[in-house]
Amino acid sequence: MAERQQPRKIPLIFFRTPAGTEPVREWLKGLPEEERRAIGTDLLRAQWRWPVGMPLCRPMGNGLWEIRTDLPTNRTARVLLCLYREHLVALHGFIKKTRATPDEDLALARKRRKELEQ
User: Fold this and answer.
1) Among 49, 71, 77, 107, which lies 20 to 30 A Cα-Cα from 96?
2) CB 15 within 8 A of CB 23
3) How far is 104 from 95, CA to CA, in rounded Å?
């Protein structure tokens, strides 16, 4: 009889710059509490269900994923992350203002992912 595997929570960490700051954590702290709570709930769902698909999480290519949160304030937040050494790493967070994810947001997440792997 096959043993049922317990769900395992993948740890989530915040990308840290060489100067020691955590840009995603700082961004989150600047948001209203109800928005922070909604994003936190979605990040937690991703940790428990990884790998998770749409509508919560969308692959963005090159090992990047975006966590998609519809905020209670009728805004939309995205947290770009990668999987690194058995951890989900929050690389970049932003409030989405257009339909497509802006190239500069993707470029920043890719740059941080490269720094992480060096």
Assistant:
1) 49
2) yes
3) 13
Please count the helices (runs of H) and the strands (runs of E) in the chain.
3, 5
Classify strands 87-96 and 12-14 as parallel, antiparallel or unpaired.
Answer: parallel
Using DSSP's 3-state secondary structure scheme, residue 82 falls into: strand
User: How many whole angstroms separate alpha carbon 11 and alpha carbon 52?
Assistant: 15
- With H, G, I as helix, E, B as strand and everything else as coil, classify residue 24: helix
pTM above 0.70, yes or no: yes
Per-residue pLDDT reduced to its tens digit, 52-92: 999 999 999 999 999 999 999 999 999 999 999 999 999 99
